[in-house]
DNA sequence: AAAAGCCCCTGGACGC
DNA sequence: TGCGTCCAGGGGCTTT
């Protein structure tokens, strides 16, 4: 599910319900998700107060009052839902990102249920269990394997044409693979890479090295690409991310950016660029689907 | 060191 | 209705 805009949307939603509350009870129903959950997870979390919520790349960072950070990665299908403490009519809950409390899915995949000090219930559901959680002392975050090799935040000033060109210089991979690589730019995934390359008018199969001159300076393509990445992500964050197949009951606070896709999931449909007569194609690239317009992405 | 493949896991859509 | 195949927003690990 989640790339940067979706993770950011979930982070913001959780922030509203977690900050200032303490973990009272941790109902842990499995030993592991993708990886083993932390040793003595419940005991270590119980009684801790949530200070703040942050995000780095596709990780949600839940800062606790003992200097530790609960680091959460949602994988493909990880979701949080929240049931408010007292809700008439049986408590239908709060919507977080593309997630409704009654996820309409499978309680079998409710792997963790946190009871907070205000009585709200926060459930982590993850059908495929590609998600994971870890408790990391704040001081060790930077050097932690999760974070040590991560590339720049795309919405920060660290992502510049010069940076991208320098990282692309001499690389043999194609543009799609470069942008999917979390060590270069952290937080992009299949959807937003496809959309950014479309906006920049760049062929996903073109070599990444073409972003740089021989001396490693930014080519115009790098300038366009950086602008495209930033604009598509910023718009998606504003729209609350994208909601794909999990769209259940319509709800205003679900993600809306899926309605803005220019290429993703639009195989066989007309290119949306003004004046372009092209048709969106899908090709498997690096084991994943790439959607692009062969006419205007060159 | 970089690039390419395989793998993890479950569910939904589709064809027969 | 049932079964097989393909596909899915993640990325780690292994091999070349």
Secondary-structure topology with pairs:
Blueprint: H1 4-18, E1 23-28, H2 41-45, E2 50-56, E3 59-64, E4 68-73, E5 78-83, E6 110-116, E7 121-126, E8 132-137, H3 145-148, H4 161-168, H5 175-180, H6 190-200, H7 220-238, E9 281-285, E10 288-292
Antiparallel strand pairs: 1-6, 2-3, 3-4, 4-8, 5-7, 6-7, 9-10
The protein binds a DNA duplex (16 and 16 nucleotides) through helix 6.
Gist of the model:
The chain is α+β, with helices and mostly antiparallel strands and 298 residues long. Helices cover 23% and strands 20% of the residues. The two termini are 28 Å apart.
How does this model look, in words?
There is one protein chain. The chain has 298 residues and is α+β, with helices and mostly antiparallel strands. The chain folds into two domains: 137 residues, N-terminal domain of MutM-like DNA repair proteins (Alpha-Beta Barrel), CATH 3.20.190; 132 residues, Helicase, Ruva Protein, domain 3 (Orthogonal Bundle). It has seven helices and ten strands. The strands form three sheets. A four-stranded antiparallel beta sheet has the order 1-6-7-5. A four-stranded antiparallel beta sheet has the order 2-3-4-8, with helices on one face. Strands 9-10 form a two-stranded antiparallel ribbon. The longest helix has 19 residues. About 7% of the residues have low confidence. It binds a DNA duplex (16 and 16 nucleotides) through helix 6.
